[in-house]
Amino acid sequence: PLYILVVSVTAAVQGVVWVLVLTVVTLYAMGILTTRLIGHKMLFDASDSTDDALTAPFKTVPDSMFTLFRVMSGAQSDAEAAALDSIMDDIPTFKFAFVFFMVTSSWTLLSILTAVVSENMISTTSGQEKEILLMSEEEDRKRHVQDLKELFKEINSTGDGIVREKDLIRFLQNNNNAQQTAKMCRVPVRHVQEVMKTLAINSEVIRMEQFVECLLDVGNPVTEKSTMRLEALALETRTQSAQYLESLEDSMEDLKQYVQDALESSPNGPNGPMAS
Questions:
Q1: Considering the chain, what is the average pLDDT of its residues?
Q2: CA 129 – CA 252 distance, rounded (Å)
Q3: How far, in Å, CA of 114 to CA of 122, rounded?
Q4: How many Å apart are CA 4 and CA 10, to the nearest integer?
Q5: How much is the pLDDT for 110?
Q6: CB of 13 closer than 8 Å to CB of 50
Q7: Longest C-alpha distance within the chain, in Å?
Q8: What are phi and psi of 47, to 5 degrees?
Q9: Inter-residue long-range contacts of 189-196, CB under 8 Å, 24+ positions, other chains counted
Q10: Residue 206: CB atoms within 10 Å
Q11: Residue 86 CB partners (closer than 8 Å, separation 6+)
Q12: In this structure, what are the phi and psi dihedrals at residue 183, rounded to the nearest 5 degrees?
């Protein structure tokens, strides 16, 4: 967990850098505007005497950017807060500009920052968890196979490694066995019985390994991998059928040739005494 956390924070830093760039650009644009309007007293009437304490936080662009950053983060000093209040009292329309700045900077930019950090950490954590699952998948599968074999050990009463349908039904009639089977196979008990019936269609003898192997995947959703397995199985079946058909045709040809040779060599054949 600590490794995943460190990797997630490292990945989130890359997104934070671009949010910081956007914040600096926004503060720079607002800093130029406030410096021209307030620091250079363009917002005030030339005939009115303006207290220098009101314009001091906005004398230069860097001063304006720093003041706006402190306002955005809610850490402005008493002098800066008093200067802003005095400006808004003298010029009520400035309140709209202040509200726009707060919505743009404090709400929007900070929300973007939170969203970027959260998204990067979630995606990185998800990727790391998938890698861990891939690395431990084979070990988990072997452990799951062993657990299922231990669970169904009672079914194989004769010890020959063959699973019989009647033994499975008798085993699942016990409520504890049924609950344990559903929990370990991650499917309802009726699906376990359906797997048994499906395997019995193609084979009279069902080995324990074959039965357990099918139960491992019966609860998994349909994926591209399972579709490819079905296509491979269909292709293999079609190839075997073609081979069997070809072998049958060869056998029929051999049988036909054998019968023909037998008739020709027989005394009662086409050229024998019985033919005349």
A1: 79
A2: 60
A3: 12
A4: 10
A5: 79
A6: no
A7: 147
A8: -75, -20
A9: 191/218, 191/219, 192/168, 192/218, 193/168, 193/169, 196/163, 196/165, 196/168
A10: 20
A11: 51, 54
A12: -70, -45
Give the residue carrying structure tokens 């030339």: 46
Q: Yes or no: say if 169 and 236 are a contact pair by the CB < 8 Å rule.
A: no
pLDDT, averaged in runs of 10, over the chain (276 residues): 73 79 89 88 71 82 90 84 85 85 82 82 78 75 78 71 78 82 79 78 74 73 68 80 86 83 68 49
CB 230 within 8 A of CB 238: no
| Relative orientation angle of helices 110-151 and 2-34, to the nearest 10 degrees | 170
Tokens of 38: 């307030």
How many alpha carbons fall within 13 Å on the CB side of residue 16? Answer: 10
The rounded distance, in Å, linking the Cα atoms of 259 and 89 is 119
User: H/E/C letters for each residue in the chain?
Assistant: CHHHHHHHHHHHHHHHHHHHHHHHHHHHHHHHHHHHHHHCCCCCCCCCCCCHHHHHHHCCHHHHHHHHHHHHCCCCCHHHHHHHHHHHHHCCCHHHHHHHHHHHHHHHHHHHHHHHHHHHHHHHHHHHHHHHHHHHHHHHHHHHHHHHHHHHHHCCCCCCCECCHHHHHHHHCCHHHHHHHHHHHCCCHHHHHHHHHHHHHHCCCCEHHHHHHHHHHCCCCCCHHHHHHHHHHHHHHHHHHHHHHHHHHHHHHHHHHHHHHHHHHCCCCCCCHHHC
Task: Pull the structure tokens for residue 86.
Answer: 């005095």
pLDDT in tens, 15-38: 788 888 888 898 899 899 889 888
How many CB atoms lie under 10 A from the CB of residue 223? 9
